């Protein structure tokens, strides 16, 4: 298949599909963390309407995530940014490609409203795919099956959690980047199960 992995700088999903023999391209405004892979650094709209068999998209979640909904009420400028984010998200949601997966954290109700009420198809966790980590992630799927867990790690508290269950990664300039990278077990499951 020809696979576009949109908004991915790490190359994990791209490389997982490439390892299965697919022609996979990652695309992001950031340079590729893995310089060996097929990566387009630039606006995804430059390549979005090429012929793709599958699109796996990771649109930015800053204004969509339920965890940050309180900021909408503290900073009025974020409403316009939410609208812009929804337009970008909808580029993938309404794309004519036959098979599409969009990955994002749990969205707040205002985000769902702006994408036409489209609820996600499935939620997954890294611990379902062999990782000692918790991070509930939503998938919007078009003509793709739900991901089936491959290696469940059961714990009372995962290594990335504080006692209250929050992510324990402290504030830093790279926190957003570290939190956005796809877990390898999830990338491998996508490439194997959506083959």
Give the helix/strand layout:
Layout: E1 2-6, H1 12-19, E2 23-28, E3 39-41, E4 54-57, H2 70-74, H3 77-93, E5 99-105, H4 109-114, E6 122-124, E7 137-142, H5 175-180, H6 184-193
Parallel strand pairs: 1-2, 1-4, 2-3, 4-5
Antiparallel strand pairs: 5-7, 6-7
Helix pairs in contact: 1-6
Note down, in words, how this protein is organized:
With 195 residues, this protein is of the alpha/beta class. It has a single domain (2-193), classed as Vaccinia Virus protein VP39 (Rossmann fold, 3-Layer(aba) Sandwich), CATH 3.40.50. Helices cover 27% and strands 17% of the residues. It has helices spanning 12-19, 70-74, 77-93, 109-114, 175-180, 184-193, and strands at 2-6, 23-28, 39-41, 54-57, 99-105, 122-124, 137-142. A seven-stranded mixed sheet has the order 3-2-1-4-5-7-6, with helices on both faces. Helix 1 (12-19) links the parallel strand 1 and strand 2 (23-28). Helix 1 packs across helix 6. The chain starts with a strand and ends with a helix. The model has no long low-confidence stretch (mean pLDDT 90).
- Quaternary state of the chains: single chain
> Taking Cα atoms only, what radius of gyration do you get, to the nearest Å?
16 Å
What is the CATH domain class?
Answer: Alpha Beta
What does the overall shape look like? globular
Query: Count the strands?
Result: 7
The name of the CATH superfamily reads Vaccinia Virus protein VP39
Roughly how many Å apart are the termini? 8 Å
Question: In sequence order, what are the helices and strands, one letter per element?
Answer: EHEEEHHEHEEHH
* Nearest-integer average pLDDT: 90
Strand line-up of the largest beta sheet: 3-2-1-4-5-7-6
Just name the CATH architecture.
3-Layer(aba) Sandwich
Largest sheet: 7 strands, mixed
Percentage of residues in helical conformation: 25-40%
